[in-house]
Amino acid sequence: MNDKNYFIKQLFDIINPLKQYFSGGMVRYAQHRAWYDDTAGDMEAFARPLWGLVPYFAGGGSDTHFETLYISGITEGTDPESETYWGVTGERDQRYVEMASIAYGMLFAADRLWEPLTDEAKNNLTKWLWQINEHDVCDSNWRFFRVLVNIAFKKLGLRYSEEKLNEDLTRLDEFYIADGWYKDGVHGQTDYYIAFAFHFYGLIYAKAMENDDPKRAALYKERAAKFAKTFIYWFDEDGEALPYGRSLTYRFAQTAFWSACLIAGIRPFPMDVMKGLIKRNLDNWLEKDIFDHGGILSVGYDYPNLLMAEHYNAHGSPYWGLKAYAFLMLPDNHEFWTAEAAPMPALEKQIAVKSANMLISRRNGKTVVYPTGENEYFDCGQIIPKYLKFAYSAHFGFNVMRSQISLAEAAPDNMLVFDIDGLIMVRRHFKTAKVESDRVIIKWSPFKGIDVKTTVIPNDEGHIREHEIVSEYDCTAYDAGFAVRSESECSVLGDGKSIVIPASPNTNLRYPKTVIPAVEYKIKKGNNKIRTVIKDYLGETK
Fold first, then answer.
1. Which overall architecture, per CATH, does domain 4-337 show?
2. The pTM of the whole model exceeds 0.90
């Protein structure tokens, strides 16, 4: 059975509700805004559905309505005299992010999104896109946006900046660590951007530039194949993927990496395994309450939730997740369409991924990640809970903070926190860390005058935390386990007093209401040692 139409239907179920909101080069239905200007936000909502439409067009699909909307929208959006002109760009402008999806269309669906344009519209579009060569982009995965624009120009026989192209490709290589892992720019985080940005764009480059730059194309494929061997651990056997790091509102972009592998012609795993990874993740997401009553993708994770959003999440931001549908450009006779969706392959019980600064534990088909967490100064919204907890799990999700005025509002799952003069002080200042074969060791501080050395040791029931605390004053500490829907899902044991924290509603990414088991410890001035046992019952019924 060929199930290409199954996935095409998924795509159009996601994007069809947007049609009524197109207005020239904008898509407007905003009920909230991001830190960039409103024009950029409305332009973003226009551009991001292209991540799904371009591969659909490239794979032979056609939709007259959307094709008309995009030809007229691109024409108006790049016309300085138009009411929906996308505007003159500046340094590190959000519009550079959205240029990538237009370049994607020029590379793989030029017959739908470039050739139908008038000569004047083509000239306006190239002038508008050229602005990315005249300004700085963020020194991170953003460099790939300029790469895509310039190779789109090159492939269409237009003027392009060879200087910027070489500069960006060279700089991107400097972010490479080892074993397929990059760091995402100057902040150095290793998160989903390595999968759905560095490797996704790298594999687009490999497909588009295979003949022009075979050496780099081969290098990107080689790195992706290495990365796949550890990235697969981020997926549970039921299709849930690990919530960790920023930009989680992109949801099913989690599986974009596997899709990009297919279009670039690499198979880090057998075709049926890759089919299973993609299909389970997409199906899992589309069964959740991620759409509003009008069928529009919400900002949030398992449910609409602005509390967990970054400052750069505008109304159209979640449609970046449509990168997952890159596989739609595969021809109708490709074996992917008739392959059975195989279950997850056998994986190691525990691996140390030192290139990603984490230890990964696998039990009963579910993953728990224990990262060192070094990303405390990247100020774009809820960064501390997204990177600095002791453990992350797809099954439990994690909680973000509402405030520091109470335990309930701090919602400190998988954290050791301190009550200092009525404020809940969370893990913040990173000092050093190392990942060993069976443990993670972190030195950190929540507050001036308190220094902590934490050793996290996974075991067959969960994990153990050993804390060595040097404090300049007496205070109270709380060592918390996973946030759960009911107390029976997780227990926390220690020499202190067992408590249950009623987390403030809507702080957890997966569940609107959670409680957090914890142990309360009295910390004395001087040296303290405490030990907490976290039992998570993954795969068990309690």
1. Alpha/alpha barrel (1.50)
2. yes
